[in-house]
Amino acid sequence: MNTSTPAESIHSQRPGPTLRSWQFAIATLAIHLYFVSYGISIVNVPSSLSNEADWVVGIVVGGLGFAGMLTRPLVGVWVDGSARERWLKVGGIATTVAFIGYGLSLNPWLMLIFRGIHGVAMGMFTTSLLAMVASHIPEERRGFGIGLYQSGNAIAQLYAAPLSFWIATQASFEAAFFTGAIAAGLAFFVGSIVRDLEPPLIKAPTPWRKREWISKHSVIPAVVFCTMTTTVGAVTAFLPLFAIERDLGNPGLYYSVWAVVLLGSRFLTGALADRLGRTQVVLPALAAGALSLFILASAHSQLMMLVSAGIGGFALAGVQISVMALIVDRTPASSRGAAMATYTMAWDVGAVIGGVLLGIIVDATSYSFGFLLMGFLPLGGIVVYAFGVAGRDSKQAHPANGNSPQ
User: Fold this and answer.
1) What gap in Å lies between CA 203 and CA 210, rounded to an integer?
2) For the chain, what percent of residues have pLDDT higher than 90?
3) What does the CA dihedral 301, 381, 338, 70 come to, rounded to 10 degrees?
4) Which end of the chain lies in a sparser environment, N or C, as judged by fewer CB atoms within 10 Å?
5) Residue 204 and residue 214: Cα distance in Å, rounded?
6) Rounded CA gap, 161 and 43, in Å?
7) Which of 205, 199, 213, 184 is CA-nearest to residue 89?
8) Does the domain at residues 21-201+213-392 carry the CATH identifier 1.20.1250.20?
9) Can you tell me the distance from the alpha carbon of 212 to that of 232, in angstroms, rounded to the nearest whole number?
């Protein structure tokens, strides 16, 4: 007996997704442009506040993550409750506005307002695009496809951070921020072209209290990912100032090396996750993440800083791609907005912990001790993954009937 709904029947009659589609290519270009703007912010927001106290820098830098953390569950509900394309457009426009705001004033408290707007907007744009792009990736190549898509933001890191540092030194911080606004505007334009092949099945309105605010399929993998994003948040907030203190040179080079390794590792780790399973990639990557922070904490030369960047790029690629693929494996298409919102919330939580709390720690101790402390978090991620995720790891994509694999 055929129990499929008309909408499900229409989906089943459509051609299967392919990584060679122009829509997948457009989505990858959109995320690339969006992270060009983000790369401009990660160097110039803390650098423009170099005359402020460390705790002020931590609050302003972490404001993006804090705003995203508070609103990401709501974004997931919105993305699954209506056309995902709508929320992508809102996020792109709001991000452009945030960068214009950065350029209008370098006052930290005014900048904090626009960091909040940026955090909410980033949740809308990235969550919507992630949920949409999943519909363009074949199930049997999910790890590789996600790695290919995520390469868009890795390529942005190759040049966005050092270029923005150069613009700020040759012109001004305001000029660098307005360049970020242009990149965000282009991301909005390009992202508006992408269409969702598996849109949510909109039924009668569901009461707010019964909606899926936190995805049960994603929460534990997202906690594991958070142990990595917290280290990224710490580096993002304080690497520029740490590099100045120890005379390590242009901090933008850290992000360039990080991005080169991240880019190459996403292809490799995505393919390995498809072939070997998610666990066999995640655990070594978490260990590498800890090593990266231990090396950075002891760095007294640019070479050591760049070695840390390379190991950190590999670590983030392995954890990010495998965890994202694992979440998509377990999540029905109709709930991907909530799943991606829960997953991407790890970025926001990591920015808050890595920025705000580390700002308080380094204010009382040192940058070196703060990075050393952060290095123990990925080791904790190994424990969480081993007990909470590994027993249910699956290389298979999520079955069409919407039941999560056991």
Assistant:
1) 14
2) 23
3) -60
4) N
5) 21
6) 6
7) 184
8) yes
9) 28
